[in-house]
Amino acid sequence: KNEVEQSPQNLTAQEGEFITINCSYSVGISALHWLQQHPGGGIVSLFMLSSGKKKHGRLIATINIQEKHSSLHITASHPRDSAVYICAVKTDKLIFGTGTRLQVFP
Amino acid sequence: DSGVTQTPKHLITATGQRVTLRCSPRSGDLSVYWYQQSLDQGLQFLIQYYNGEERAKGNILERFSAQQFPDLHSELNLSSLELGDSALYFCASSVAGAPRTDTQYFGPGTRLTVL
Asked: What's the rounded Cα separation, in Å, for the pair B97 and B20?
């Protein structure tokens, strides 16, 4: 079993829909990263959080340390949100989930 | 733009060959991390250097080696290449050497294709 599990693996949505991507982990962590990887391959860090909730524009990330679970929400999704979203947990190294491929259609 | 640069962007080579990937960290960052992203394994941590010294090792094969130079740039050397080494190789940098607390900034990656 992977130490970091993401769901769903693939997600398609219509423009404007509310999106939720989930991440569960089984190890002790100091923080959790949400990363975005565009089709060109580049990786951008969206959030790093260790408790509670963070918001940036249309993106919201939450984490529940007791339940070892985090969610990434995208409100009013747009085709430019199409990317792979990767959850990574911080221990003595970064451990990555397998990613969620999101496609948003106009 | 994260401030981390990687060269080359693309590399195509043959099995058995040796290649060197280069990474320049953000100005002021002392730590460099190398990651491999293959289709079947996802992103995996390979190795970390901090101020010229190896700090942590992950799933790095013995055919692979890395170093960090006094100017803090780093090189990842891959030798006796196999088809399965084809992957995206990312470098990331952070201010200090503490993955637990530092934010890591990723470079654009080097796409290696082994034919």
From this structure: 23
Residue B39's pLDDT band, with cuts at 50, 70 and 90, is confident
Torsion of Cα atoms, B103 then A47 then B47 then A24, to 10°: 140
In this prediction, residue A13 has a pLDDT band, given cuts at 50, 70 and 90, of very high
CA angle B32, B105, A73 (to 5 degrees): 140
Provide the pLDDT confidence category of residue B101 given band limits of 50, 70 and 90: low
Report the alpha-carbon distance of residue A34 to residue A83 in Å, rounded. Answer: 12
Closest residue on chain B to A43 (Cα): B106
Distance CA(A14)–CA(A7), nearest Å, equals 18
One-letter amino acid of A72: L
CA pseudo-torsion sign B39, B43, B49, B55: negative
Q: Look-up: residue for tokens 């085709």?
A: A79
For residue B112, give the nearest of B85, B74, B92, B94 by alpha carbon: B85
CA distance B100 to B44: 16
> B17-26, B33-42, B72-81: which range is least confident on average?
B33-42
Among residues 61-100 of chain A, which lie with CB inside 8 Å of chain B?
86, 88, 90-99
Q: Among B93, B99, B114, B104, which residue's Cα sits nearest to residue B29?
A: B93
Between chains, do A94 and B56 touch, taking CB under 8 Å as contact? no
Please state, in angstroms and rounded to a whole number, the distance separating the CA atoms of residues A105 and A11.
11
